Amino acid sequence: MQINEDKLHAFVGKMLGDLGGAYSVPTVRLGLRLGLFKALHEHGPVTAADLAHLAGGLAERYVREWALAQAANGYIDFESASGTFSLSPEQAMVFVSKDSPFYLEGAFDLVAAMIEGEPKVEHSFRTGAGVRWGDTAGCLFCATGAFFRPGYVNNIVQNWLPALDGVEDKLKAGAKVADVGCGVGFSTLLMADAYPNSRFVGYDFHEPSIEEAKAHARAHGVSGRVEFNATTAKDIAEGDFDLVTSFDCLHDMGDPRGCAGHMRQILRSDGTWMVVEPIAGDRPEENMNPVGRLYYNASTMICVPTSLDQEVGEGLGAQAGEAKLAEVMRAGGFSRVRQATAGPFNMVLEARA
Predict the structure, then answer these.
(1) Which residues are in the Methyltransferase domain (predicted)?
(2) H or E stretch including 114?
(3) What is the Cα–Cα distance from 184 to 146, expressed in whole angstroms?
(4) Strand 199-204 to strand 226-230: parallel, antiparallel, or no bridges (unpaired)?
(5) How much is the pLDDT for 171?
(6) d(CA 71, CA 85)
(7) pLDDT digit of tens for each residue in the chain (353 aa)?
């Protein structure tokens, strides 16, 4: 087989870029935990010695190497004449501003969790078994919550709920809402803060996530009208909900069709099920893009193993696509399913009886 040198060099160049990004994961996480990005944002431009002092008296030699690594990454700016480092407003949106839609601390933590869970997923490749949610890595559920939080902060109340037919009026007046697959509760509490006349119940089958959610509710001072329960979607006993929400979790469920059927049962006859899922085309070739790349890799390491560990184990994956998801929802008894809105990372499906 003859090698095309141009293609080879182009491919090696791509790999160098990819490996550079992979190598940056631990150093970025160190910078976030040690407050180095924050100190640069608040005080830059500064020398490495000043940065080490401003970040709490860190070792200058380590900080200098870290700063040069981030400058080589393109994550911070370096002025060679003065030997100073700084953070641009655009870089701060990614590394400092926690409510920015582009804040990515959770994404870097998620990568680390996937690497930690690699041996368990490899075992599943060999056996066909699944990996229980929460068992893949030490705090996968924490990283997942942090990863999704910026998108939720900037979209749930501003864009997603208003895109549903008549739902926002109900929430303002006072509705009963179930947040199914609530994780650590970020989505539930954002809705509760925005709609004080409504009552919210968050459900998740992962007990440590529910404990985190309860702690967040206490900190928000909304415990009186927000509650969290550890239970599977199909075991929710309460009913007569005006709205059920499921944020980035339906594809993780072992029995999404059974879940859909139960959501239909616990909703009022005029109720709405809002399902937020990763954006995806209906055919694999439509997902050969940077966003699809992220989701397919995360799905391999997290979503599919999680689903295959559960009852039925359908394994939809994070790139199931609208047509497949709508078919699952209709199988549960929803006759009307439409895409209410979409963004670069998510699509919002609205289902009614």
Answers:
(1) 172-279
(2) helix 105-116
(3) 9
(4) parallel
(5) 98
(6) 8
(7) 899 999 999 999 999 999 999 999 999 999 999 999 999 999 989 999 999 999 999 999 999 999 999 999 999 999 999 999 999 999 999 999 999 999 999 999 999 999 999 999 999 999 999 999 988 887 888 899 899 999 999 999 999 999 999 999 999 999 999 999 999 999 999 999 999 999 999 999 999 999 999 999 998 888 788 999 999 999 999 999 999 999 999 999 999 999 999 999 999 999 999 999 999 999 999 999 999 999 999 999 999 999 999 999 999 999 999 999 999 999 999 999 999 999 999 999 999 99
Q: In this structure, how many other beta carbons lie within 10 angstroms of the beta carbon of residue 158? A: 10
Task: Give residue for tokens 């616990």.
Answer: 266
Residue type, 217: A
Single-letter amino acid code for the residue at 162: P
Contact present, 312 and 241 (Cβ < 8 Å): no
pTM of the model: 0.94
Asked if residue 270 lies in contact with residue 241, where contact means CB atoms within 8 angstroms, the answer is no
Residue type (1 letter), 272: T
Match 């924050």 to its residue by tokens: 38
Helix (H) or strand (E) holding 24: helix 5-33
8 Å CB contact between 324 and 282: yes
CA-wise closest residue to 249 among 187, 161, 167, 201: 187
